[in-house]
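re: ur question from earlier - yeah i can do the single chain one, its not a big deal. heres the input i used so u can compare w yours
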Amino acid sequence: MILSLIRKQYSKVQSQIITLVPQLGEVLTTSKRDGLGFLASFFVLSIQGLIIMFYNFGQLLLPYIGFITLVSLVGENIVSSKGHYTYNTGRHILYVGIVPISILFLWIGSIAGPYSGFYILLIGNNQPTSIMLWTVSILAAMSSMIFDFIILEPLAYKKRLWLWRNKHRFYAPAKNYAVWFIFPLLANLLLSLELWLISIG
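and the output i got, formated as tokens:
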């Protein structure tokens, strides 16, 4: 619904620009349209996960989201600046340093969504125990990694969202998938620690 509305409004603006400036219209048609689409899609993904989590955890989300934001933006800028991979500028709009803002939304949605899902499934309204919180954190991190392996990296390769310096059998190097497990796990454990401290307080 939101994505459809954004694309509809964007189409109106684009048609007006094309009428006034044909050269600029051609640029928008060939490159930036996909960038807006990916930005909107990743934004919706993150918002869906955050709405569910806010309903369950409220203000406890602030350190959690702050940690994901800081690590993803700083880490992505450092790693991509070393040339291991580059973002296709024709597929993205709005950047923080050399990292598209859509990547931040992607990280938030990919981490928050699985955690909220497993928390509702395994704990629900019950008092969380340390074992259950560890279980939720690990399963959610594994889901984030599987999402990257099965869906995200093949999609990125097909749509050329980012380009790895070297070719890899599974679209990305093994250490990429390790990061997709370790980073979500650390974020999940941070939130789980907050929940555990409240439960024993």
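The longest strand covers residues 85-87. not sure if urs matches, ping me
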